[in-house]
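Propose amino acids for all 432 sites.
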């Protein structure tokens, strides 16, 4: 089969880790001299290793955090211990044992999911790593936290529980694509996350390329798209990261979610009898790994896309004008940008203070932060709207204030509700 199956299936395609590295190489070839490029490539490899390591250590960190919680309880004075439920204080009680076994099962199940994922990318899983006695370093808290974020994104994108979020976020984009974009057009989905929106667009009959730069996300999307072959194939336990915070019952924290709600190949209709034949009518489906601007600002991408469609992505830019200009350049004349999401600004950083004597002072004080936190320009919609028009778009639809969740916990006591700006903009057609 043309494109579509080749891109989605592992057996015909280089592993995702190779793809990602290559996207980076391409990127560095443009921007750096050879020495820098070598150094950057080494750093990139190191980063990939760290990401894999964090997935391998997910259960170990979870067990440690649980043990730490138990230790804190044990250290309470006797008077306080006496008023706590047995489920927290008495290891011999049935209630305590039940909770322990539920927690252990959840940790093991999550680790099983990540181990299958690592294996499918040709990387040693946690068991193999232990058996072979490989050297390792403990992961950073940030990387471990990202493994939990991946689980929550799995719920959002590939579970029945995530349907409400998908309707809120992806629904308006899919409707707009059906309304405006000609069949056969090429659509780019930047900030693709775990690939659900990209897959659904492809299922409508469009050629799609998702783009994502997080290796945590890329490893997982590759696994779901290529290797999940049965509905509800995996149990994951996404909610126990923060132990008892903002929750009602212990069992709410340790509840399971089944993944996937639908098999990607079935969604894409790849499992029909003709799916192994070359079929020119099948739309392409691929994932481009790497930074959005680095990949798509390249001249080879100019005027190559009929539409860019994204959810919760534009505010991931340190400077939204740069993303909008890149999108304008990559679109054909008359091409569409459609976006849905808040203006939360992912890189929003610290404010300058009266005792910061100069910009250099400010930068030096925050040298430990990613530079993007210091560069972020957070603009209101009114200003973003002006930029769109100044760059050369006509705004043809605009809806402000639709509410949406992002990886919310249905049974949790604390969830953020975003008010979104949904818009469709059309690249002006200039007389040549
Ligand atoms: C808030 S999440 C939204 C994910 C998905 N669109 C959804 O709605 O669930 C933003 C995504 O954009 C990705 N991202 C952020 N900056 C990026 C960049 N410069 N290039 C490619 N991907 C990027 C992040 O890794 C993350 O997966």
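Proposal:
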């Amino acid at each position: 089969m043309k494109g579509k199956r080749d891109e989605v299936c592992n057996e015909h395609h280089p592993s995702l880790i190779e793809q990602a590295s290559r996207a980076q190489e391409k990127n560095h070839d443009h921007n750096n001299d050879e020495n820098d490029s070598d150094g950057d490539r080494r750093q990139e490899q190191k980063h990939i290793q760290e990401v894999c390591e964090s997935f391998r250590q997910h259960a170990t960190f979870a067990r440690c955090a649980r043990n730490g919680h138990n230790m804190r309880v044990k250290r309470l004075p006797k008077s306080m211990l006496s008023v706590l439920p047995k489920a927290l204080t008495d290891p011999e009680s049935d209630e305590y044992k039940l909770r322990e076994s539920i927690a252990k099962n959840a940790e093991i199940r999550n680790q099983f999911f990540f181990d299958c994922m690592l294996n499918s990318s040709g990387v040693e899983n946690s068991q193999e790593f232990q058996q072979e006695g490989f050297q390792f370093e403990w992961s950073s808290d940030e990387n471990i936290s990202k493994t939990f974020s991946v689980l929550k994104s799995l719920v959002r994108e590939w579970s029945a529980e995530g349907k409400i979020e998908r309707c809120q976020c992806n629904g308006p984009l899919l409707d707009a694509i059906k309304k405006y974009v000609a069949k056969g057009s090429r659509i780019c989905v930047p900030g693709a996350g775990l690939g659900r929106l990209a897959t659904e667009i492809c299922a409508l009959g469009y050629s799609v390329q998702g783009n994502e730069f997080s290796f945590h996300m890329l490893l997982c999307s590759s696994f779901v798209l290529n290797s999940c072959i049965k509905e509800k194939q995996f149990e994951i336990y996404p909610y126990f990261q923060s132990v008892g915070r903002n929750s009602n019952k212990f069992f709410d924290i340790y509840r399971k979610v089944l993944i996937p709600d639908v098999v990607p190949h079935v969604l894409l209709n790849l499992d029909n009898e003709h799916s192994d034949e070359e079929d020119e009518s099948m739309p392409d489906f691929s994932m481009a790994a790497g930074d959005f601007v680095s990949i798509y600002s390249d001249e080879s991408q100019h005027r190559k896309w009929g539409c860019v469609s994204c959810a919760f992505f534009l505010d991931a830019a340190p400077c939204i004008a740069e993303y909008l200009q890149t999108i304008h350049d990559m679109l054909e004349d008359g091409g569409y940008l459609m976006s849905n999401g808040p203006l939360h600004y992912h890189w929003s950083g610290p404010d300058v203070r009266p005792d910061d004597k100069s910009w250099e002072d400010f930068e030096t004080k925050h040298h430990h932060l990613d530079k993007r936190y210091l560069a972020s320009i957070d603009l209101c919609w009114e200003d973003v709207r002006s930029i769109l028009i100044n760059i050369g778009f006509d705004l043809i639809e605009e809806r402000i204030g639709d509410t949406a969740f992002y990886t919310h916990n249905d049974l949790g006591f604390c969830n953020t509700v975003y008010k979104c700006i949904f818009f469709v903009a059309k690249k002006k057609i200039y007389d040549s």
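The first strand starts at residue 186 and ends at 190. The two ends are 38 Å apart (CA to CA).
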